[in-house]
Model the fold of this input.
Amino acid sequence: MQYDPNSLLYISKAMDLFDMVDCDDALSLANISKVQCPALIMGVQSDILFPIQQQREVVEMLKDSGNLDVSYYELNAMFGHDTFLIDVNGVTGAIRGHL
Done:
């Protein structure tokens, strides 16, 4: 699979601009408590863009806010954040299990 270089630029910019926090250093329970639909959180142990500990914190915050339908899947791969593009079987399996 090949990606257009311009697409990667837009994806990179979107990731750089993404901020789940509203002018705060930590995720806000007030914001995340609004998420009451089934949620799948996936993390990659080698991801430095969105570290695995942050994914675990999101799971805990969702559960603490009363969302009982939270699935968590941790991928063990050496590809960092790109694991979501490379480990198709692992990602697909997690999504299937969640659905």
